[in-house]
Write a structure and sequence with these properties.
The structure holds two protein chains of two kinds. By secondary structure, chain A is of the alpha+beta class. Chain A has helices spanning 16-94, 98-120, 130-157, 164-283, 286-316, 329-344, 363-380, 436-446, and strands at residues 4-7, 321-328, 348-352, 358-361, 386-394, 397-403, 450-456, 459-467. In chain A, strand 5 and strand 6 (397-403) form a beta hairpin. By secondary structure, chain B is an alpha/beta fold. The chains are: A alpha+beta, B alpha/beta.
Chain lengths: 474, 136
Amino acid sequence: MPDSKIMSNGSIGRGGGSRYLARLRFTFGRHLLISVAIAATTLGGLAALQFLALSALREANDHVHAVAQLEQLSGAQARRITLIRATLFPAFERNPGAETRAALLRGFDEADTAIDAFVSFEHEAIVEIEGEREFRAASARAFVAASRERLAFLETAGHGVPYPAEQQYLAVRQENLDAQDDFQAASSALLAKHDANEGSAGRLVRNTTIGSAAVLLFLFIGYVWLESVLATRAQNAELRGRMAEQLSAHRGDMVNLASHELRNPLAVILLTSELMESAAADSGDAVLAEAAADARSAALRADSIVAELLDLGRIDAERLVLNIRPIAVGPLIAEAVSVAADHHGARNTSIDCGADMVVLADPDRLRIIVRNVIDNAFKYSPAGTNVRISVRRQNGSTVMEVADEGPGIAETALEEVFSRFGRLQATAQVSGIGIGLHLSRELARRMAGDLHARHNEDGACFVLSLPTAQPAHA
Amino acid sequence: MPDGRAQADTALGRPVILIVDDEAALRRVLGLLLAREGFEVVVATGGPDAFEKMEAGLRADIALVDFRMPDMDGAQVLRELRSRGYGGPALLISASLRTEQAVVGMGFDGFIAKPYQFGKLLERLRELIPVPQRGS
């Protein structure tokens, strides 16, 4: 069956720069399009507002023009009446001849014509002062009629004789003056209103123009700022990626260096202890042979710790390379039990594991896991107690359970035992550096399995699950 | 372990093992262990030292080559030994490489990871060359 390799490497590899440029171009293009769309929509809205404002302004100007026309007509009427009142009558009274009489009559006709023109002028803007116009026209007509009566009186009764029509004329004249004042006031109010309208429309145009410019400026600044922020973030991300890559490379170098520098002296110690053991056996020196065997065992334990530390370093550096293949669990359990018994003393060990219990795992890493879990059971259980090891199939996985009769693990600490250097304080007198279970869980998870703990009635139980190797077909 | 005895011992039928390793203590203890097993041992501190001994007439039956050394790595040493006419088997012994797959293509006949127990080395030697009975 072919072996497969898994490289767990989360660092940013080569090609990150070109991907970053492509992403930056995409981001720039996308934001450019969004900005153009926003600017176009804003300009369209502003153009519509401006059109409405100009329409209002044109309407207001039209109204003002109409008012000016009305004022002009009203002024013509007023001038005729003023002519009659201030010039023609005094002239006739001084010289009541045919010429002045004809002038006075022409003045009456012109006043009537002016009044008719004033009254007949129609514009929607004038509706608002319709009442004033009617009043003004009626007053003017009354004045002209009174003036005609006065002329007739003067022609029949002669000068200097009081006559009721004269009184009426004076009263009407006063009314006319008042009406003219009222008209002027109303007209001024209308003009003021127009000015106000024109002013507000002008302000609207100015404000929309300034607003448009401000919005466009804001959009431009916002766009530049956004691009700047995005570019800075992208640069920072790329920088972080490079730093992580370099750090990962340094860690990998350190792991390789430590691997070489620690294992060479261990090889010397191990081989030297074997030489001493062999020489002591040859010379019959049992004490030296035993001491040399202890040294050999210690060197092997040290190598195991080095291997675990190096694997931890590889996991941190995302450089763990796994060599996954089918591997039988039984022999590894037997080996681990033997090593644990050598180290901690024998326990009443029962192993329930069939020869067909084969998993997909990296053999060296599975050995680390099995040794750690079984060593842990021996380490924490008193001499003479039972350590039960069983392996079974469960939902497509192969599950190994290792149960001991030690103090067990509190429910709240079931996860804590898997933290790095996470040995329980209460067991600080037990040897070890507290990475075994942490590393074992990390390795199990990287091999598509898991490792967890539970508290049994009589101790702790560790449960390892790994993918089951499919049997080879003929 | 005088190197000059190598050729004479080969003639007497003792297999000659060439150890190429820059670690002096390792050369010494491994040499002693192998000598106790009946091998004739020639040690070299690195590639250049090994080549000199080859040129001086060394005829090794097997070469145990360390991987990481100052002058050149184990793969380069083996290539150079081959180009100088060495045709025997070779084992790579490494403290940094950990798997057989890592040494594929280097031309070695086997791989042993440091630290190793001497018995394991003897097993690999038996697979590649006739191993003398201890004490012969």
